[in-house]
Fold:
Amino acid sequence: MWNRNIETFLGCDGTYEDSHIVIFGAPFDSTTSYRPGTRFAARTMRAESYGLETYSPYQDLDLEDAHAFDGGDLELPFGDTERALDMIHTFTKNILTDGRLPFLIGGEHLVSLPAIKAAAEKHPDLVVIHFDAHTDLRDEYLGNHLSHATVIRRVWDFLGDGRIHQFGIRSGERAEWKWAREGHTNLRPFTFAGLSEAIAEVKDRPVYLTIDLDVLDPSAFPGTGTPEAGGVTFIELMKAALSVIYGCNVVACDMVELSPPLDASGTSTATALKLLREMILALETAFLRPQTV
Structure:
C-alpha cells in the first residue's frame, strides 16, 4: 500500500495539536509592480528544503527537536485581492486563537497586511518591526490602495504613529520618506543601526516581525521582484532577525518576496530557507523559555 505523499518543509512535519509554530504559504502576487513570481515561493522552498540540514551550527539547535507544523498553501483567488486578504486574515486569526504562532511565507508583501491585522486584533498593543529595502508607505499605487507598495501605510491606518519600526530601507518616493520622518513610523535607513534600541523599547509588548527578503543585497539575493542595490548580507539579516526573536515577544511573523523563477541558480531559495530554519529554531526556543511575571 502506498503512503500519501505530503511534502512539508524539512523538519516541520509535526501535528498541529503538538506544534507551537504553524507555517503556511500565501501564494499571491497579483499587485506585483515589476517582476512577478512570488506565488511560487512556498512550494519551491518546501521542495528545496531537503537540501538543507536540520541542524543549525549557529545556534546548536536542531529542527528534529522543534515543534513546527506546515499547514500548506492557502488556495487564494489571484484575481480577487480583497477575498484573498480575507482568507489570509481568517487563517491567521484561527492560528492565533488556538494559541499558536503563525509564520506566513509569501507571496508579495501585501499578504502581510491581513496577518498583521489579525495579530493586532488579538494583541491591541502590537508593534511591527519591518525589514525591507522599500518604505512601502505609498497611500496608493496606480490608483490602488491595496498594493505591495502600500502595505505598511495600510498597517499604519490601524496601528497609528510610533508602532512601526523600519530597518534597511533604501528606496521610496520622496513623499514616503518625508511622511515617515514626520513621525508616523520609526524609519532607520540602509542598515540595522538602532535595532537594539528599538528592541529595548518594545521588548515588553507583542511584536509582529515582517521580513521582505529584498532587504538583502541583490548580489546575495537576486531572486526577488524589485531588487535594490546596497542591501545587507545574509549574516547581518540572520543576526537581526534572531535578535528580535530572542529580545522581544514575537507573536507572529512572515517572510515575503522570494521569487524563485527569477534566480535559476536556486541561491535565493537556499538563502531564504536557511533564514527560515534559524528563525523557526529561535522561535521555538523563545516559546519554551520561562516567562517572567
